[in-house]
Design goal:
By secondary structure, the protein is of the alpha/beta class. It contains eight helices and seven strands. Strand 2, helix 4 and strand 3 form a beta-alpha-beta unit. It is globular. The termini are far apart. The chain binds S-adenosylmethionine (SAM). S-adenosylmethionine (SAM) binds next to helix 2.
Length: 224
């Protein structure tokens, strides 16, 4: 897998334009989302996947397109610079994509929602990492996930608690989805988390670094 970051030089326009957090680094939730998906490749065979807010790499979506027999992967972010970088990553990895059609696009939730109408109810899986903390548009993100998923589709999401923002997302999602939340979802990751906490280093603050897991599936009409 060949992944490139955007350059270190940040132009002033980037700081005043659309949210730039996805061009800073690959965040721990994205790394854990990737690890989690790679540990259960078989569920993605023959399925369609969209990653939302994937930042400049969409690491999880790219890894799945190479390692699983997913049929279609849409790599997305709301930031145009991130999506330009995704285009480059797709071009570099093209020969490695297994059976998957892989494309990228700007998809935005919230005011000025940007979404291709052909994507509605098309996806078996929505992936998303570290996107719950934006106060504006949190409910719109829930609605967008709902819109993109097939009736029996599932969302696999990771995010740190970041104050009350994780729980605020889950409360909103509960209205239309069956939600499952886990803090301990993998022995290896939990073990690293406990060791880091024990060390008590300033470099590790679970509230902003430890990715928690959320699984969503659509409620049937009678459950709502
Ligand atoms: C903290 S970054 C996470 C990026 C990547 N998932 C990771 O964990 O490395 C949040 C991402 O959400 C995107 N984002 C923020 N608000 C958005 C919106 N309304 N629509 C689409 N993407 C949005 C940002 O552009 C950014 O890439």
């Amino acid at each position: 897998m060949s992944i490139s970051h955007l350059s270190d030089h940040v132009k002033p326009e980037a700081l005043t334009g659309f949210n730039n957090t996805g061009n800073v680094c690959v965040w721990p939730s994205e790394e854990v989302l990737t690890y989690y998906c790679l540990n259960q490749l078989e569920i993605f065979n023959g399925k369609s996947v969209i990653e939302l807010g994937g930042g400049m790499t969409c690491l999880a979506g790219v890894a799945l397109s190479i390692m699983s027999d997913v049929t279609y992967t849409e790599l997305t972010d709301g930031n145009k610079d991130s999506v330009s970088n995704l285009d480059k990553i797709i071009a570099k990895n093209r020969s490695q994509f297994n059976k998957s059609k892989v494309t990228s696009s700007v998809v935005r939730w919230g005011p000025g929602e940007t979404i291709n109408q052909d994507m509605i109810e098309v996806f078996d899986y929505v992936l998303c990492a570290d996107c719950f903390f934006f106060e504006e548009g949190r409910e719109d993100l829930v609605k967008l996930i709902y819109k993109l998923l097939k009736q029996d589709g599932e969302a696999i999401l990771f995010a740190p608690k970041r104050g009350k923002t994780f729980d605020a997302f889950v409360t909103l999602a509960d209205a239309v989805f069956n939600t499952e939340v886990k803090e301990n979802y993998d022995d290896t990751i939990w073990d690293i988390h406990c060791k880091m906490k024990e060390k008590g280093t300033d470099a590790y603050d679970p509230d902003i670094h430890y990715p928690c897991f959320v699984h969503l599936s659509k409620k049937s009409n009678s459950d709502k």
